[in-house]
């Protein structure tokens, strides 16, 4: 357990060191959040003025279900498209940095716009799978809900590398999913530790944000409210940084897994430690600079 915690900390620290070299990358998760909120507000507004929400309550059970799931599918697609679009930008810029370049915001947008078709296709697939899992969970009993949750987690794990595969290898979606799953098996353990490690330390930093509102409660109601407001902005900032860090390490691990190149800024001990397969079964044979 201590080894996992230590490795997670170094993954977090080294990803953060890379991010410090290109802080402009943070604009992508910021825009992702902004556009997602705009999309949500737009869909809610459209649902109200068109009477969509009213029909959800007034229609028959079948009609309500069809309309409800149709609206949910649309939301899944739109939100996934936005998230993937900006994730492509982060991962592309991270790769430029790993290969010794100096990425710009324009590089990220150029990469995302050049892969619009692939992004839309993957968003469609992700939305479809998400909707199927949601329907299965809604209609299942307790055990079925657990199975649906496990299926959702397995899908998320299997597609951990889907974005770098899609943009760097330009395979079909079917082949990209297979390649992503193969890379997850090759890096089994660290691909999860990397995401979980970043999340773990972000949770610890997030918990620290509770200090202000809690301390404010002992001063006055106004102080507690101010503390809550500061905490909210603090948490939003952590979410932005967390998204960028996850994309950075994902790009670095992908680069090492596929090309055997050690990403600039990462220590061999932590990147090579990503490969839990038995010797000779999938890990890159050597590290190149």
Summarize the structure.
The chain is mainly α and 289 residues long. Helix content is 80%, strand content 0%.
Explain the overall architecture.
With 289 residues, the protein is an all-alpha fold. 80% of the residues lie in helices and 0% in strands. The chain has helices at 2-21, 27-49, 52-58, 61-98, 105-114, 116-139, 142-158, 162-169, 173-186, 190-208, 211-217, 221-259, 268-272. The longest helix has 39 residues, at 221-259. The two termini are 31 Å apart. Mean pLDDT is 80; it is low at 276-289.
Largest sheet: none
What is the arithmetic mean of pLDDT? Answer: 80
The helix-and-strand class reads: mainly alpha
Head-to-tail CA distance between termini: 31 Å
Percent range for β-strand residues: under 5%
- Unreliable runs: 276-289
Count up the helices. 13
Coarse shape: globular
- In total, the number of strands is 0
Mind telling me the C-alpha Rg? 21 Å
């Amino acid at each position: 357990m201590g080894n996992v915690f230590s490795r997670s900390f170094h993954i977090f620290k080294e990803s953060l060191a890379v991010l410090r070299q290109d802080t402009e990358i943070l604009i992508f998760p910021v825009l992702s959040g902004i556009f997602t909120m705009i999309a949500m507000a737009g869909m809610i507004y459209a649902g109200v003025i068109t009477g969509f929400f009213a029909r959800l309550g007034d229609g028959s059970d079948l009609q309500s279900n069809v309309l409800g799931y149709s609206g949910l599918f649309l939301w899944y697609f739109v939100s996934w498209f936005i998230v993937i679009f900006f994730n492509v930008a982060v991962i592309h810029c991270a790769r430029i940095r790993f290969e010794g370049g100096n990425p710009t915001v324009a590089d990220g947008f150029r990469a995302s716009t050049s892969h619009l078709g692939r992004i839309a296709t993957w968003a469609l697939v992700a939305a479809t799978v998400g909707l199927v899992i949601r329907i299965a969970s809604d209609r299942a009993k307790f055990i079925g809900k657990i199975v649906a949750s496990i299926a959702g987690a397995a899908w998320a794990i299997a597609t951990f590398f889907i974005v770098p595969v899609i943009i760097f290898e330009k395979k079909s979606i079917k082949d990209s999913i297979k390649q992503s799953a193969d890379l997850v098996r090759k890096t089994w353990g660290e691909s999860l530790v990397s995401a979980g490690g970043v999340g773990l330390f972000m949770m610890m930093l997030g918990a620290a944000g509770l200090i202000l509102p809690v301390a404010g409660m002992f001063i006055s109601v106004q102080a507690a409210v101010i503390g809550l407001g500061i905490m909210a902005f603090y948490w939003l900032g952590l979410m932005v940084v967390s998204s960028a860090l996850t994309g950075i390490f994902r790009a670095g691990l992908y680069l090492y897994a596929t090309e055997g190149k050690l990403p600039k800024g990462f220590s061999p001990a932590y990147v090579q430690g990503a490969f839990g397969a038995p010797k000779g079964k999938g890990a890159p044979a050597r590290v190149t600079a």
